[in-house]
Design a protein that fits this description.
The complex is a heterodimer of chains A (202) and B (482).
Chain A (H helix, E strand, L loop, with lengths): L5 E9 L6 H4 L13 H4 L2 H4 L22 E4 L11 H8 L4 E4 L4 H9 L3 E4 L2 H11 L5 E6 L4 E4 L4 E3 L4 H9 L3 H5 L3 H14 L5
Chain B lengths: L19 H9 E4 L4 E5 L2 E4 L5 H9 L10 E4 L17 H17 L2 E3 L9 H8 L7 E4 L13 E4 L2 H10 L1 E5 L2 E8 L8 H12 L7 E6 L1 H4 L3 H10 L7 E3 L4 H7 L9 H10 L12 E6 L6 E3 L7 E3 L13 H14 L14 E4 L7 H11 L9 E4 L4 H9 L2 H7 L3 E2 L20 E4 L14 E4 L2 H10 L10
Parallel strand pairs in B: 3-4, 3-6, 4-5, 6-7, 9-10, 9-12, 10-11, 15-16, 15-18, 16-17, 18-19
Antiparallel strand pairs in B: 1-2, 2-8, 13-14
Classes of the chains: A alpha/beta (202), B alpha/beta (482).
Bound molecules: iron/sulfur cluster (SF4).
């Protein structure tokens, strides 16, 4: 998993609430057995009209925001389907962090498993960042996970809190399966007892 | 000296009375991790063809094998055609490729697969209960958000992403962060013509699309207890649409009756042991819930969605709401956008909304009780001219049961298509896709933009309302049919 320490880049505003994973990654991009081509799929139906033409008004199609590293998003971002393709696609487009007030549960976990920083901010900070990102000119931010802060190029600064375990995993790009497999003894012990108690289970 | 078996080998974190959710956690905790995290043992892991491939590839690349193949089950359901005649053929080459890769993975690793031509095939969350594999006290995970369905049995079920699918394959465990226990109580008895779908849609409309985010929601109250297992599954299935990560209903005699005598149910002495264990899976009397919300089921009316989020719902005898009356600017923006997408004007009576498609299907509402309700409405009536009515049973078992009851004949006589099982137009990943601008009355769970096809407009409602709408050619309460 890719690690996240200090990242600078442009921030784009996607202020609507309840942006679901069908919108982030439409179904026509879910048919592979690998992770290829998902950058193309990210927000596809918002980026292109039915005839395949770019919609010039969508933020990620506008000059200066096309390669946004940060998305400042509305509440409950990532709701709906569990498809991790949504996170893979955002990463393939170069998105490194999502800044918002709340994220849907499965999506939030998927982000953590892929080194995409989903930051749950207090409403005042989120509002301020939304204003920065929605400005007439592209604005650059620096998100510093080592110091837990977000700064603009002109020196404005906000701090954030993040669960310690999640932060550690992101900083070091931890392999979760390898970590769990250090506990095979505990799993096997539990399993043996559990099977005695519930021998009818598969 | 044999000592009495402890139900919860893991020392409970909390002393005193516990919720059903905490009992399920404690009964499956392998060990505590940092903070609120723990390693949970997974009793059953269910996979489909579209969220598992990259997990299997990851497993192979790391040189790992599934920890316990017998506790894994794979089902083909999302991409297969649902044409009335089932064949091996899957014309879409990428869909066929996903099915082939699932076959290879199951064969290589000794995992049971319910394949396309298997008579038991269907939507994973319908097939697992059909088989009797959903039982009280279990942990059941699946790379699909509607895994909350199994909460109807008093099992801890929730959806995971593909990275976690790989984790469960490799370790038979999941890292679980304790959720906030919440109780939603539905008092009273639902009125005539109000079903499980209306109850859960009313809860979602009231709490909002993220109203239960971060919570493990236990549904309780007289209106829940009165539901059969199909209705309870509808409630727990759709609870994810208000953000609930886990939904639960305490098991009772109705639960045991449903599980008993299904192919994978415990039998003989195991049945006695199992039911004795199940009886302990309920919230203690004084268990503490961080939140509690009450609804009067008697006040719930049949609902339909007008927007593009499942919480944007009104009574079928109401009108499309006006964003001008919404004070919150974010919600207002969302309403304006939803109305634009849906091609609706504020103030339009819901019953004036004409449809061209009606879809009965999905893990929310394609079980036998749902098909009985649809047949009850459709009997002796005809689908309106210009409306395409599709019925996609949740599984082969549901389809056969319906045929044994003559339901298929009633529906075909009414002009509905009687199709083969699968997810179908619930997410339109196969060839069942709505055209741009089509308007569909749908018994499914998500009305998101583009969900049933790019530019397609979905109105969620109960199966009975979908049937009535198909017949009327516009959104309709069955009680208003001539
Ligand atoms: S029926 Fe719909 S919601 Fe259920 S598993 Fe299939 S696609 Fe998902």
């Amino acid at each position: 998993m890719e690690s996240f320490t200090i990242v600078s880049g442009t921030a784009a505003a996607i202020p609507l609430p309840n942006i679901d994973t069908d919108v982030i990654m439409p179904k026509q991009f879910l048919k592979g057995i690998d992770r290829s081509g998902l950058g193309e799929g990210a927000f596809h139906d918002l980026r292109f009209d039915a005839g395949g033409r770019e919609r010039p008004d969508f933020i990620l199609n506008r000059p200066g925001w096309r390669d946004a590293a940060f998305l400042v998003v509305g509440p409950n971002f990532g709701c709906g389907s569990s498809r991790e393709h949504a996170v893979w696609g955002l990463k393939q487009r170069g998105v490194r962090a999502l800044l918002g007030t709340s994220f849907a549960g499965i999506f939030f976990d998927n982000c953590a498993r892929n080194g995409l920083l989903a930051l749950t901010l207090d409403p005042a900070t989120a509002d301020a960042l939304m204003e920065v990102a929605a400005g007439p000119e592209p604005a650059r931010l620096t998100v510093d996970l080592t110091g837990c802060s977000i700064a603009t190029a002109d020196g404005r600064r906000w701090s954030f809190t993040i669960d310690a375990g999640r932060r550690e995993a992101l900083l070091h790009g931890r392999d979760h399966i390898a970590t769990t497999l250090t506990r095979t003894g505990a799993i096997a012990d539990f399993e043996a007892g559990h099977r005695m108690r519930t021998p009818w289970l598969p | 000296m044999p000592s009495p078996e402890p139900l919860f080998p893991h020392a409970p974190d909390r002393q005193g009375p516990r919720t059903l959710y905490d009992k399920l956690l404690d009964a499956h905790t392998v060990c505590s991790l940092d903070g609120e995290e723990r390693l949970l043992y997974v009793d059953l892991h269910v996979m489909n063809e579209y969220t598992s491939p990259q997990a299997f590839t990851g497993l192979r690349e790391a040189g790992r094998r599934p920890w316990r193949p017998s506790a894994q089950l794979a089902v083909v359901d999302h991409v297969n055609p649902t044409a009335p005649q089932r064949t091996e053929d899957v014309a879409d080459e990428s869909a066929a490729g996903q099915i082939r890769y699932l076959r290879r993975n199951c064969a290589d690793f000794g995992i049971e697969l319910i394949d396309l031509m298997d008579p038991r095939q269907g939507i994973e969350h319908v097939v697992v209960p059909d088989l009797g594999l959903a039982q009280p006290g279990m942990t059941i995970l699946c790379g699909d958000s509607h895994t909350t369905t199994y909460g109807a049995f008093g099992a801890l079920g929730y959806g995971i992403g593909t990275s976690e699918v790989e984790h469960v394959l490799a370790t038979q465990t999941v890292v679980h962060r304790r959720l906030a226990p919440m109780r939603v109580i539905l008092d009273g008895i639902a009125g005539d013509g109000v079903g499980a779908k209306d109850l859960i849609m009313a809860v979602i409309a009231s709490l909002g699309a993220d109203g239960a985010a971060g919570h493990a929601v236990e549904f309780a109250g007289a209106a829940i207890r009165a539901l059969g297992m199909e209705g309870r599954m509808t409630v727990c299935n759709m609870a994810v649409e208000c953000g609930a990560r886990v939904a639960l209903i305490a098991p009772d005699a109705i639960t045991a009756d449903y599980v008993r005598s299904r192919p994978r149910a415990p039998s003989g002495a195991d049945w006695e042991r199992a039911t004795a264990l199940w009886a302990r899976f309920h919230s203690d009397e004084d268990a503490h819930f961080l939140r509690e919300v009450r609804f009067d089921a008697a006040a719930v009316r049949p609902l339909v969605t007008w927007g593009t989020s499942p919480d944007q719902a009104v009574a079928v005898d109401g009108t499309v709401p006006d964003p001008g009356t919404e004070i919150d600017p974010t919600r207002r923006r969302a309403m304006v956008r939803a109305l634009e997408y849906m091609g609706l004007a504020p103030g339009t009576p819901v019953r004036d909304i004409a449809i061209d498609h009606a879809f009965i299907g999905s893990c929310t509402n394609a079980r036998i009780e749902d098909l009985r309700a649809v047949a009850g409405v459709a009997k002796g009536r005809r689908v309106a001219p210009g409306v395409r009515g599709m019925i996609v049973p949740g599984s082969g078992a549901v389809r056969r049961q319906a045929e044994a009851e003559g339901i298929d004949r009633v529906l075909i006589a009414a002009g509905f298509e009687w199709r083969q099982p699968g997810c179908s137009m619930c997410l339109a990943m196969n060839d069942d896709v709505l055209p741009d601008g089509a308007r569909c009355a749908s018994s499914t769970n998500r009305n998101f933009e583009g969900r049933q096809g790019r530019g397609a407009r979905t109105h969620l409602m109960s199966p009975a309302l979908v049937a009535a709408s198909a017949i009327a050619g516009r959104l309709c309460d069955p009680r208003d049919l001539p």
